[in-house]
Write a structure and sequence with these properties.
The chain starts with a strand and ends with a strand. It has helices spanning about 40-45, 45-55, 90-95, 100, 110, 180-185, 230-240, and strands at about 1-5, 10-15, 20, 60-65, 70, 80, 115, 120-125, 130, 140, 140-150, 165-170, 175, 190-200, 210-215, 220-225, 250, 265-270, 275-285. The chain is about 15% helix and about 30% strand. The structure holds manganese (II) ion (MN).
Length: about 280
């Protein structure tokens, strides 16, 4: 099932090039009072929501996908987790590029651990990326994003997939420079999630997905998740050693080689096999 959030926070069921309005399924989410439970309420109640979506789909109003504004399919993650240097060829290019490594030796993910991106940086593809620092280098990083479903701490890798609700495409937009990753990657609109949320039952092997990323029609990144250094289960295991993972938490799994700067007016397109394709415009902040 492909679920999207669109326009004025409506819930959509995506089928081919059509969005079915199944906003009524949000009634399956219990009303919460302060203090709000951590984690995304839709993902936390996904089974009940899916049941309602299926019941509503037959009579739902249909809209062409091209005519809606897609927002991040997870509205309220408790955290967005990033995986630094999780593809060997990205390590190689970072090591060779002074603008990326700013004079530091680049090591792999097991040296750095993980990092967090501010939740306030999260947008959907229809909202676009607003470049905050046009005088600095702002790069795209196209990544597979895994969305946590069942909460857990210290999750062993052989149980990791029990904790994943689905997948999306993530763009881990980055200002290059010497500051901490969490600072440079948390600018407003520098975390793009979309185009929708694909439930895990539709992805037979997240560690074998082809993906391609274009800027203005030119291929910039092309890889397969089989080249991940820490694979999806490994990232769930690693992250949950340190953080309790909660429903809706987003793990951006890392970017392959081919990162490059973008400028206002650029149109980015990302496509991941079986997950989908999304278009994101870059503008000045
Ligand atoms: Mn990244």
């Amino acid at each position: 099932m492909r679920l999207c959030r669109y326009d004025d926070d409506r819930l959509g069921l995506v089928r081919d090039d059509t969005v079915l309005d199944v906003t009524g399924a949000l009634e399956a989410i219990p009303t919460a009072r302060w203090p709000l439970p951590q984690g995304d309420p839709l993902i936390a109640h996904l089974d009940a929501v899916r049941e309602r979506v299926e019941a509503l789909a037959a009579d739902a109003a249909a809209r062409p996908l091209a005519g809606v504004t897609l927002k991040a399919p997870v509205a309220n993650p408790s955290k967005i987790i990033g995986a630094p240097v999780n593809y060997q060829k990205h390590l190689d290019e970072a090591q060779a590029d002074r603008e990326i490594n700013v004079g530091r030796e680049i090591k792999t993910i097991d040296h750095y651990g993980l990092f967090l991106k501010a939740n306030s940086s999260l947008v959907g593809p229809g909202e676009g990326v607003a470049l905050r620092f046009p005088d600095r280098r702002n790069d795209h990083e196209c990544e597979l994003a895994a969305i946590i479903g069942k909460p857990g701490s210290e999750i062993p890798r052989d149980r990791a997939f029990d904790h994943i609700a689905g997948y999306a495409i993530g763009l881990d937009m980055t200002v290059r420079g010497s500051e901490d990753r969490s600072f440079r990657k948390s600018v407003d609109s520098y975390s793009v999630l979309g185009p929708w949320f694909v439930t895990a039952d539709e992805i037979s092997d997240p560690d074998d997905l082809d993906f391609t990323f274009w800027v203005n029609g030119e291929v910039r990144q092309q890889s397969n998740t089989r080249h991940l250094i820490f694979d999806v289960a490994g990232l769930v295991e690693y992250a949950s050693k340190f953080y309790t993972l909660l429903p809706g938490d987003v793990i951006m799994t890392g970017t392959p080689e081919g990162v490059s700067p973008v400028a206002p007016g650029d149109v980015m397109v990302a496509k991941i096999e079986t997950v989908g394709r999304m278009e994101v415009t870059v503008r000045a902040a």
